[in-house]
Amino acid sequence: FTNLGIYAIPISSASILLVWSAVFIPTYPCKVLKLKWNTFYGAIYKMLISSVILFAVASLLRILFPIHSWFTLIGFCAVAGVMGLMINLFLVLNKQDRQQFLHTVRKKLKR
Length: 111
Prior knowledge:
The chain is 79% helix and 0% strand. α2 runs antiparallel to α3. It has four helices and no strands.
């Protein structure tokens, strides 16, 4: 029926899962907890923006530093991980959560 062939199966499954995750999963807990229906969408949008930015940064890093061996792959993952942590630290966490995270890291490093 389409030109997608076998790819139609995972695409349709992913589409249904995306709609389910975007509509029902955030709204049902709001109903159960008696919160406003869009309470969790702010956090979801922050994570989506963070994911897009991290994808763009990792893609740029991959162009600048091609991966040719296990060593470069591990180095790339370490750099991308640190950059992802920094992006999420400032984009996703609020000031209080950021201070608590940094306090916990400092406490762990002092041991």
